[in-house]
Amino acid sequence: MAAEQPAQVPGWAKLLGSLAIAFHLLAVVVAALDAPSGPWPTPMGPQRGDPPAFAFQIAEHLTLPYAQFVKVAGAYRFESNRLEVPDIQVEARVRDAEGRVVANVKLPDPTAPLAVQYRQKLLVTWLRFDQPLPPPQSVLLAPQGGVLPKVRWWEPDGDRRMRLIEDDANSVPRNRPVMEPMPSAYRLATAVARHLCRAHGGDRAEIVRLYRDPIPPAVLVQGAPPTADELRGYQATYGDLPK
User: Fold this and answer.
1) Is the pTM of this model over 0.85?
2) What is the rounded distance in angstroms from the CA atom of residue 139 to the CA atom of residue 105?
3) Confidence band (pLDDT; 50, 70, 90) for 192?
4) How far apart are CA 214 and CA 130, in angstroms?
């Protein structure tokens, strides 16, 4: 009895399978290339470079939807690997309705497991994002029967301290640069405050951002170590945020 011959895969199936595998590999490689590089030294300080134009175009018009669908769109540039970003920590004071402090919380929590500390550190890192707030070019007038919209900006409040001010746009200082927290950073601060109030039975929480600029590699070739003042951090308080 003659042995049965194995079924032959049609040529068109081989071609389609090969194309599918090649497209998948292309999506993975392009996702890894389509990411900023650096930081590179520039006259304005260390700056991140744009991704290669060809990788950006291929991802934008061909591979990105597929890579996102199968969850291989990561560029393997993890947030924790960016040593040029400031070191961010959060101190929160949770208060009850009478104003008594019911809990003091630090993020990352030094008593939490290392895996939890790592995720908390990645979370609070997003609080670092500020952006310039241009003052109005003229005095704004409120509509009849209405009020001017509120804006928020960082106001100096002592040595290396800032506090968040919320007022109408006409109150923005015009004689100096002014920064404001990005909307995503402010939403994160309010979300952290709500979570801590629920966890500790509080009515509001004061969120304080502690940050310190990274020490540049140039200190390795300097004649003297960094001074204590250069190693000091900054504080920026978002004020009491409601639950």
Assistant:
1) no
2) 42
3) very high
4) 17
